Amino acid sequence: MSVVEDYDRILQPRAAQGLVGAEKLQGVFLDALGHGRLHHAWLIGGPDSCGKATFAYQVAKFLLDHQFDVWDAAPKVQDLSVSSDSRAAAKISAGSHSDLLLLSRRWDADNKRMTAGIPVNDVRRLTQFLGSTAGEGGWRIVIVDKVDDMAPAAANALLKSLEEPPANCLFLLISDNIQRLLPTIRSRCRKAMLPRPTDAEVATILQAQIDDFDAAEFALVEGLADGRVRYAMDLLATDHGDLRHDMQARLEEPPGDLKNLHALADALCSRGRDALFAEFLERARLFVHNRAKAVAGQGGANPWIDVWDVLDRQQRETETYNLDKKQLILNLFALLNKAKHAAALLPA
Prior knowledge:
Elements: H1 3-11, H2 23-34, E1 41-45, H3 52-66, H4 70-73, H5 87-94, E2 100-104, E3 107-108, E4 113-114, H6 120-123, H7 125-131, E5 140-145, H8 152-163, E6 169-174, H9 183-186, E7 190-193, H10 199-209, H11 215-225, H12 229-236, H13 241-252, H14 262-268, H15 274-295, H16 303-321, H17 325-344
Parallel strand pairs: 1-6, 1-7, 2-5, 5-6
Antiparallel strand pairs: 3-4
Helix pairs in contact: 3-5, 11-12, 13-15, 14-17, 15-16, 16-17
């Protein structure tokens, strides 16, 4: 994936139509609005790719759509959705709403790369943004995606704005790991934790975003995606249903002859299939993880722990020294055969 595509991903959630899941958190936010005690800064956390940015933009669309009647509107609705003809939502989706400021890593056209973090100069734009009258006379909203990407100087610049916010201003800070943030930032925010989406919710989201969504193909990747919407989309972007069936079948089959694995290994290691090779390793890790959990507590050594450790080491060595990927796959199945035999001898 190119760095330009990586920046496009940052911008995708602003165009999302509606919000799937997060009913409890939507209720918490609406309750705060309805009682006139909306905190000025919300720290939105949760697992990777669980919809944190989508939630932040949905909040922004709701506030900027209602603007002057939000306190009255909140108690009358069940969620943060807005009408399909909302001018405010359309502007936000297009990135043209003057009362919404996004702080994120960005594409540096001069150096042709993504910025390492959120530039401190971008954060300093807050002073002008917050010091000006709202373009449409109501709310001003700042989304930071992600606050984890801030260097200390940028975080300190943000902290100054959090300490003395103007009226009708809302900060929505997105974080993958809240505990790693400065305590001074955490203490000034109300925490809003999003759960990992269920497989059914992921399917609903993908149906809305993928024109030719294939439920059967999604069934092949849903366990691997584990609620990560963005990863599920990446997996579905490659149409390898038959090969995915073969991968999973070979992982789950009884111990077999490694000679019969060469066709699968060759298919995974072919030119242009790096993403598929990485997917296979993820599948193997998930398979080993589930087997290790299944035999935990049965007494004796857990043979699957050794598989995990050796696979982790051999994968690092293969990537570091550009070793033969096919040999890594064959070594993995040798480890799996050994672990399957050992697991069969464990007490029931």
